[in-house]
Amino acid sequence: MSELIEMQNISLKAAEMVEEGRVHKDLYSNPEIFEEELDKVFNNTWVFVGHESEVPEAGSFKTAYIGRQPVILSRDRKMNLHVLQNRCRHRGATVCEARKGKTKAFTCPYHGWGYGLDGSLRALPKPEEYDGVFDKNDMPLESLRVETYQGMVFATFNDGIEPLEDFLGGAKKWIDLFMKQGGGYPVKVLGEHRFNFPGNWKIQLENTTDAYHFPIVHKSFVSSLDEATADIFDFLDGEGFVEDLGNGHSVMVMIPQLVDLEEDLDQPIPERFASLAQALRDEGKSEDEVKKLVRAAHGTGFNLNLFPNVSCSMAFFRVLRPVSVGETEIQHVALGGEGAPTAFNRKRMRLHEHFQGPMGFGTPDDGEAWERVQKGAMAGTDGWILVNRGMNNLHESKDGNVAGAVCSETGMRGAYRQYKKMMAAGEEK
Amino acid sequence: MKSNTELLAQVTEFIGYEADLLDHKGYQEWLSLWTDSGLYIVPADLNETDYLNTLNLALDDADMRRMRVARLENGESVSALSVGNTVRMMSRVRVLEAGDDVVIARCAMTLNELRHGKLVTYPANVEYTLKPTSDGFKLEQKVVKLLHADGFLRTVSFIF
Questions:
Q1: Given CB atoms, is B157 within the 8 Å cutoff of chain A?
Q2: What distance separates the 2 farthest-apart alpha carbons in chain B?
Q3: Closest-CA residue to B23 (of B72, B93, B66)
Q4: Which residues in chain A land under pLDDT 50?
Q5: Is the dihedral of CA B67, B73, B78, B84 positive or negative?
Q6: What is the mean pLDDT of chain B?
Q7: Per-residue pLDDT tens for A252-297?
Q8: Residue ranges of the domains in chain A?
Q9: Which of A5, A208, A284, B48 is 20 to 30 A (C-alpha) from A196?
Q10: What number is the ipTM of this complex?
């Protein structure tokens, strides 16, 4: 009983550490709060596990995590998607350690139990010792609820949660816009960068809706661009905005002219894409298609943050995974077009390498700033982190949402509102 | 063709020279070691060799190398300012192909980085495609195959 009361006190504390314009620094550093977040947030809502193009064929699979729990995303022979707990029902070993691949079955290395792509237990050595003990049909790999939107695959341990499309709500319109960057071809994962940083996952969650840092932290990246491109990235005084989309989701529009990549197709081709345009012409593409592909090659002019673990970030997916209170793993997933011209997908990968990943011209500087935030969280006993920027200058968006300036912290406040709601759940009992 | 011992000595000397330049941040001199068409590649997927059609951690042509060096030198990058020093050991040098126009060699590297007082180690196989010139070798391609290329790396603000 005393343990129960103690747990309630902690949860009360975590929810109370979020106020409308500030959050307490202990949210980054308290290991008990971290454990509670895994339970109340990651094990309790829709979590992004991958894109359909990563499991293109019957038998394709990839491994992923929901919080700390290892799962497998697989496609069965009827092309249905499954998300399975990566844990043999016998003695609990993981049944798959590969990052991705193609298989007919997942076989436990310990005693040879074999599972189908849908998780069903197909065969095990010497089954007669289980006669009358259990029925094989009752022992599949545990499966999670899976739903997709525009090729993005989400799974949840919470069977009672609303349908994915209701959860995404106002974010769906922006996912639709994001998926136009295949340039007329279906969006496809081209590869990914993986890195970790010694800091709390919420520091990453905040970062993808933080335009304020861009000209400071990424000065060296902007310096490496030609003048016209550098002007595009000089967006803090522009017409951009951040809109709270509800349920913790938000969109930050940095470059308004790149919101809809299928509009403004008559624009001249920018200098930095001249060689791409020529390569596309050389591949026999019409001038109209060249313009469409070149515009799509930019990626979109916005970051769409989907609570709690993925951002559709201009041209790629940024996926976070909480490892411990002070460690987070991040994947930067590069995107291109399925069946798109070689030159287009190559350009998309080169642009990704330029900024993203552990050796990009952007990410290492982000990582440095985040590491400093985590270190700073240890200073003092009662520090607060401000997320009140732009609270004095809010307006209602076309879609009736709260919106602020491009460098406001409107998106962070939206995410923390959802966080607070989830962390406070159960307290009223 | 030269005797293998002589070539191995020349290649080993070049690899040591390049490593010394990078550890001592002699980046401008490092840039001059390259041919115009040279590629500096750090693959993310060790199973792939079609680097141009694969996502890499880095795939730098001459422009990208110049920009990478500028980023490390111009004082604008907070992460570059935080790198203390690197010390790399190059060993196990082997010449794989010894032509008049091209020499291909492979070696082992262990790079140690001190950052924020913490030591980080990067073991790697490094493959060099070298072009013999009257001025010594030029780098036509350098591929750094990190042992943990497909794992979760720390961010990198130096040159492998």
A1: yes
A2: 48
A3: B72
A4: 1-9, 11, 429
A5: positive
A6: 95
A7: 999 999 999 999 998 899 988 999 999 999 999 999 999 999 999 9
A8: 48-149, 169-420
A9: B48
A10: 0.95
pLDDT of residue A12: 52
Residue ranges and CATH numbers for the domains of chain B are 4-146 (3.10.450.50)
Q: 């094990």: which residue's tokens?
A: A43
Closest CA to B133 of B89, B97, B100: B100
Chain B contact present for A194, CB below 8 A: yes
Residue A375 CB neighbour total at 10 angstroms = 14
Q: Are the CB atoms for A338 and A185 separated by under 8 Å?
A: yes
Three-state SS string over A214-281 comes to HHHHCHHHHHCCCHHHHHHCCCCCCCCEEEEEECCEEEEECCHHHCCCCCCCCCCCCHHHHHHHHHHH
What is the per-residue pLDDT across A345-357, written as a single tens digit (0 to 9) for each? Answer: 999 999 999 999 9
Strands (DSSP E) found in A77-181:
81-85, 100-102, 106-107, 114-115, 121-123, 145-149, 152-156
- Enumerate residues 6+ apart whose C-beta is below 8 A from B143: B41, B42, B43, B51, B126, B127
How far CA B70 is from CA of A133, A219, B75, B80, in Å, comes to 69, 12, 9, 11
pLDDT at A283: 94
Q: Which amino acid is located at A100 in the chain?
A: K
Nearest CB to A359 within list B42, B80, B116 = B42
Report the distance separating Cα A172 and Cα A152, nearest Å: 11
CATH of region A169-420: 3.90.380.10
Instruction: With beta carbons under 8 A apart, name residues in chain A contacting B70.
Output: 220, 223-224
The two tokens of residue A312 are: 């559709």
Q: Which residue has the tokens 């010894």?
A: B98
Min CA distance, A373 vs chain B (Å)? 14
Predicted local distance difference test score (pLDDT) of residue A3: 46
SS3 state of residue B16: helix
The DSSP output letter for A162 is P
In this structure, what token pair is assigned to residue A181? Answer: 């960057």
CATH topology for A48-149?
Rieske Iron-sulfur Protein (2.102.10)
